[in-house]
Amino acid sequence: MSLCNSQRSNFRSHLERNIRLQTRPPAPARPSTTMNSSPHGSRASIDILEELQLIAAQNLEKLDINKYYEVVCELGKGTYGKVDLVIHKIRGTKMALKFLRKKTTKLKSFLREYSISLYLSPCPFIINMYGIAFETDEYYIFAQEYALAGDLFDIIPPQVGLSETVAKRCVHQVAIALDYLHCKKLVHRDIKPENILIFDKECRKVKLSDFGMTRRAGSPVKRVSGTIPYTAPELCDTTRQEGFCVDYSTDVWAFGVLLFCMLTGNFPWEKAMPNDTFYEEFVRWQRRRTGTVPSQWRRFTDEGLRMFRRLLSIEQERRCSVKEVFSYFNQCWMLDTENGNSSSLASSAPPLDIRSSSSEEDVLVDRLKQQSLSPACVVVKGSIMMDTHYSSMSTNSSSSSTGSYERVNRENNERGRILVATPIEICV
Ligand SMILES: Nc1ncnc2c1ncn2[C@@H]1O[C@H](COP(=O)(O)OP(=O)(O)OP(=O)(O)O)[C@@H](O)[C@H]1O
User: Fold this and answer.
1) Whose CA is nearest to atom 11 of ligand 1?
2) Is the confidence at residue 381, as pLDDT, over 80?
3) Which atom in ligand 1 lies closest to the alpha carbon of residue 151?
4) 263: Cβ below 6 Å to ligand 1?
5) Under a CB-based contact definition with an 8 Å cutoff, are residues 340 and 330 in contact?
6) CA of residue 303 to ligand 1 center, whole Å
7) Which ipTM value was assigned to this complex?
């Protein structure tokens, strides 16, 4: 669909009317208790998400996948479906198609994940999108850029961890992505290595993905009935009967656990709950009831421990913002690190202020309006993808680790997802 300017403004006001008719006005996002609110991601960015969803809904076509794509292999399986590596038959482009089973995914949830992914994709550290969404009888599907080397989980050596240099390189990019998201007043809510896609084993290029759980900060969500090691203690608190307000601080906690996993190849605990010995030990030290550093934390330097104290503050209100991690990059985090000094990394690191402006957002919406979401149309009119120059081919072996460090999966109960922890054995 290509529109001239006057048609476009008519279309826009038609859309605005529709949005007003079809959706209740979004609840204003509550200011975070832990972060300064940013001038970015205000009311305008909330409206743009509604608009993107509406456009996607209007353009969703039923397609025969085999007509447009050649399926190469399965890249991964999630709670709601699968991700396949495909090649576009006419264009020859490799893409990752995410399939969400209609049986377990509502159209609304699909549109939300697709629109949020699209909205965040201008960030260079967030997985890119092709502006393609369609459906088959069984699935809702959208297309993403293909991450050549799979996900971060596969390259963390169990019980060993990544070198500090590689971990810092990766953490830096993930922190920028997370800060970008938070500045847009969104909370990821599923930070874990499986959702960090990598393009090379040295983590020179990594991107955050999977926005299926992402919600606006301040929105109410129901309690979930399970936990994974990345789940923040306030969400594990079974004595709380009521639901929660989505808050940035839960991402910061998961980010802290992620750092521990990357640097050690272990989980710090099975769950952040009082009956977990490793967690209890950590809480005693964190609350300064003991001066003894818990055994699994003794491999970190004082500076490293200071950073973990800030990221993994038990009280939600005292947890730092994700940005604070940048102030620790010139320090060594590990005691026995082979090359802990990362000052060269810090100086060559990408600039932090890469938030998209509102004019970028307008361009995004305009480009989306001008193209159908169908693959056929993308061939003719180009895509909104910014970075498609990947040619080497790799299959993601998705080898599952055994021992202390295993993939953890969520299970679905549609609106409130259940979190399930795979049994883990923590080696210290
Ligand atoms: N663009 C991509 N390129 C390469 N591999 C990918 C891509 N997207 C996803 N994968 C692989 O597929 C796996 C599952 O993808 P994803 O996390 O998006 O699905 P999900 O159903 O939301 O999973 P979960 O239930 O664990 O959150 C990822 O962990 C990764 O290994």
Assistant:
1) 76
2) no
3) 31
4) no
5) no
6) 33
7) 0.97
Angle at 354 between CA 353 and CA 357, to 5 degrees: 105
**For the CA of 79, the nearest atom of ligand 1:** 25
pLDDT at 140: 98
Mean pLDDT of 26-50: 50
Determine whether the shortest distance from the Cβ of 195 to ligand 1 is under 6 A.
Answer: yes
**Whole-prediction pTM:** 0.76
Please tell me the predicted confidence (pLDDT) of residue 425.
Answer: 33
Q: Which atom of ligand 1 is nearest to the CA of 210?
A: 18
Instruction: Show the domains of the chain with their CATH numbers.
Output: 5-11+45-148+356-407 (3.30.200.20), 152-353+421-427 (1.10.510.10)
Distance 84 CA to ligand 1 centre (A): 9
The answer, yes or no, to whether residue 149 has pLDDT greater than 80, is yes
What separation in Å is there between the alpha carbon of 77 and the centre of ligand 1? 6
pLDDT band, very low/low/confident/very high, at 363 (cuts 50, 70, 90): low
Q: Is 121 in the pocket of ligand 1 (CB under 6 A)?
A: no
Which active-site residues does the annotation give? 190
- Band (pLDDT 50/70/90 cuts) for residue 193 is very high
* pLDDT over 70 at 161, yes or no: yes
